[in-house]
Write a structure and sequence with these properties.
By secondary structure, the chain is of the alpha/beta class. It has a domain of about 80 residues: Orthogonal Bundle (uronate isomerase, domain 2, chain A). The chain is built from 18 helices and twelve strands. It has a five-stranded parallel sheet. Strands 2-3-4 form a three-stranded parallel sheet. Strands 1-12 form a two-stranded antiparallel sheet. Helix 12 crosses helix 13. It is globular.
Length: about 425
């Protein structure tokens, strides 16, 4: 069968082809907070976890009159019952946070119209977690995910130290927030773990930090190192964070040929009463990223920023530095209107050399809705850009669409980090 091609005479057929290809192409999800079952309770899944996600906690505590402490005193089941009643039954659940779980239920074949939370619970109670992971990956058409792995976590670290086999669909990323944002306490922990460090960042301590990073990259086979930073982050300066980046993180990343991923713009605990839902957002200094990319051209940097106000300047920075890779619509930007705006801007400024989305999923089930919703938006924007291209007289082939979509949904990431897809 001859390959289809598209021109001004069949633009609508092109749009249908983009939708079909976008839905059929597997995703590499480059940033999640998911785990395999060997990590025990760190793997979150099921309807009660999905509807008590911190997005919905913030929403219900805004909508209802329940005191914060009273909410936190409830069991997980009672919290879910409250959220279901307040946000799904007493109101129409059209916020993105509310719509997501409904997409999950629908894609799993459950009757969303019934609004029967107990029936949904019964479905999940019947699931074996290993088999359910297969179901979720199939429904989301996700081939692999990258976890967020913290060796400072006393629950997670022993799993790695035991050397257990990890499901090959789950890749590791070495998360180093404590090291860079709380050096004094992190140095105590490193000493407890057998590294010869002191709070003073002298040559011996920096060498031991490099050894720590190298040990854990090796143990996890980490695809990149990552940190979440506040809007106040700048580089270079006289802080321990800046010194550790320059003298430990970047040298090890260069030697290992892995990226340093920075997620910048979170304001921690703006309302502590919300606990996990307490964080806010602030505009950040794109210049810090530019200075880092310029000073360390042999390093690779993955960057996403949390504030909408930073997105245009960050795109321009990526035009200037080929060692800067933009990825995803992070956290508060993971809403349809903002995903569409950011994707259009990135396509118009950077072409196909970006990774338009990651899920940031903390609950396994979220892979289903986050990728369902994002694929529709990315596909719509891509089809619009193709229509603009066709209007110039350009002819587009189906194989070219498949090539572009595969790059946008994962191949760009694997190329940037210098690995074969999934290796």
């Amino acid at each position: 069968m001859p390959e289809r091609s598209f021109n001004e005479s069949n633009v609508e057929s092109m749009r249908a082809a983009v939708t079909e290809i976008m839905n059929a192409t597997p995703v590499t999800d480059v940033h999640t907070h998911l785990y395999t079952p060997v990590f025990g309770d760190l793997l979150l899944w099921g309807i009660d976890e999905t509807i008590t996600y911190h997005y919905l906690i913030a929403e219900v505590l805004r909508a209802s009159q329940i005191p914060y402490d009273a909410y936190w005193a409830l069991s997980k089941t009672d919290q879910a019952d409250l959220i279901w009643r307040e946000l799904y039954l007493d109101r129409s659940p059209f916020s993105e946070a509310c719509r997501g779980p409904l997409t999950v239920l629908n894609r799993l074949g459950l009757d969303v119209a019934s609004r029967d939370l107990d029936a949904y619970r019964a479905y999940f109670e019947q699931q074996d977690v290993n088999a359910y992971i297969d179901i979720v990956f199939q429904k989301a058409n996700v081939s692999s995910v990258v976890m967020t792995n913290d060796p400072f976590d006393d629950i997670e670290r022993p799993v790695w130290e035991r050397g257990v086999a990890i499901d090959k669909r789950f890749h590791a990323a070495l998360r180093i927030d404590p090291l860079l944002t709380a050096w004094e306490s992190a140095s105590d922990r490193l000493a407890e773990l057998g590294y010869k460090v002191t709070p003073v960042l002298d040559a011996t301590t920096l060498a031991e930090v490099r050894r720590f990073l190298d040990d854990w990259i090796e143990r996890m086979d980490a695809l990149y190192m990552a940190v979440s930073l506040s809007p106040a982050f700048t580089f270079p300066d006289e802080s321990p964070c800046s010194t550790l980046i320059a003298e430990a993180v970047l040298p090890v990343a260069r030697e290992r040929n892995i990226p340093f991923a920075m997620m910048i713009g979170v304001k921690r605990k703006v309302n502590p009463a919300l606990r996990l839902a307490a964080d806010g957002v602030g505009a950040s200094d794109v210049g810090a990223v530019e200075r880092m990319c310029a000073a360390y051209p042999d390093n690779k940097f993955m960057v996403t920023m949390l504030a909408r106000e930073n997105q245009h300047e960050l795109c321009i920075a990526a035009r200037k530095f080929r060692n800067l890779f933009l990825f995803g619509c992070w956290w508060f930007l993971n809403d349809p209107s903002l995903i569409e705006e950011m994707t259009r801007m990135r396509f118009e400024l950077l072409g196909s050399s970006v990774l338009p989305q990651h899920s940031d999923a903390r609950i396994l089930d979220q892979l289903i809705y986050k990728w369902s919703h994002s694929r529709a938006i990315i596909g719509r924007v891509l089809a619009d850009k193709y229509a603009d291209l066709i209007a110039t007289g350009w002819t587009l082939t189906e194989s070219e669409i498949r090539r572009d979509v595969a790059r946008l949904l994962g191949e760009n990431f694997w190329t940037f980090i210098g690995r074969e897809n999934g290796d």
